[in-house]
Write a structure and sequence with these properties.
Belongs to the TRAFAC class TrmE-Era-EngA-EngB-Septin-like GTPase superfamily. Septin GTPase family. Residues 1-41 are annotated as: Disordered. The protein is of the alpha/beta class and 350 residues long. It has one domain: P-loop containing nucleotide triphosphate hydrolases (Rossmann fold, 3-Layer(aba) Sandwich), CATH 3.40.50.300. The protein is built from eleven helices and nine strands. It has helices at residues 2-8, 32-37, 60-72, 88-96, 102-105, 154-171, 201-210, 228-244, 259-271, 310-320, 322-345; strands at residues 74-81, 120-128, 131-139, 187-192, 216-220, 274-275, 282-285, 288-295, 298-301. The strands form two sheets. It has a six-stranded mixed β-sheet with strand order 2-3-1-4-5-6, sandwiched between helices. Helix 7 (201-210) links the parallel strand 4 (187-192) and strand 5 (216-220). The longest helix has 24 residues, at 322-345. The chain is globular. The relative contact order is 0.10.
Length: 350
Amino acid sequence: RGVQAHRLCPPRGAGSSLEPEERSMEPPAVPEEEEEEAVPLSVAPGPVGCQLFGYVGIEAVLDQMKIKTMKTGFEFNIMVVGQSGLGKSTMVNTLFKSKVSRKSSQPGQEERIPKTVQLQSITHVIEEKGVKMKLTVTDTPGFGDQINNENCWDPIIKYINEQYERYLREEILITRKRKIPDTRVHGCVYFVPPTGHWLRPLDLEFMRRLSKIVNVVPVIAKADTLTLEERAEFKQRIQENLKTHAISVYPQEDFDQDPEDRALNDRIREKIPFAVVGADQEHQVNGKRVLGRKTKWGIIEVENPAHCEFPLLRDLLIRSHLQDLKDITHNVHYESYRVRRLNESNRPGQ
């Protein structure tokens, strides 16, 4: 009876309505529109660049990365391509200020021009101020030295793709290594003979094919054989050749990340190809020991920007763009190879 009397009584504040009130134990239903509009607090957008009220220590992650890199070291693989006698080995030794080239590592061997292009890699571990770098230098003796140089770039393309394939096989393993050995070529320095005219068909065809799979940096070898006027004119002709044949050498315009990178790379692109001079002997100049080449007219200082553009090449390869070379190799060239290989393996009937 108590329950029935309770139901017959009008609810408080209900006015004169005599309709019985039915109560349910279920929670009240939420309209569908309200459910869609509701945004969880965890994904609500916050203010950009939030101001901190005190020191948190976020910047310490840079020190952590530096300590870890110094402990583990890093890898850098460079390839030098060009005819014999253009100073490739001397240039590599000059870049790293140590005898890391093929000829320096194998002294006493008689140098013969091979009948076909042979690739030889030398690996060194060099250290500077506690930072270790595993450097691999790949030389290409025999390139461009034959009477018939048809398809002389094929062994080089095969070698570069083999390094991509080796990395891909390690990457797709079920149980992968914590750190996959990286033998991929991060940069290819192409030595152009100092003819003072135009690029040869061999130069154009090599850079057209290789620029699609690796970072190609062209340089004018033995630039001290040209006058400053000849050097400037030759450089302009090479830039016109590259633009006419749509050859994109490093740093590529398509991969500039932001306006600052574009401004820096535009200045570099204006100077490419770098007119370089290599030397691994020191000379006394104004009381200082400098790397250079001694001639009848004086000493050509390798690291003097007024004499040659070797400092620009060194800065590009080591001081400013080394990590960028590795990033583009991994994110662009290797990625395109990986996609192509996986598409081939996933085709029906294979």
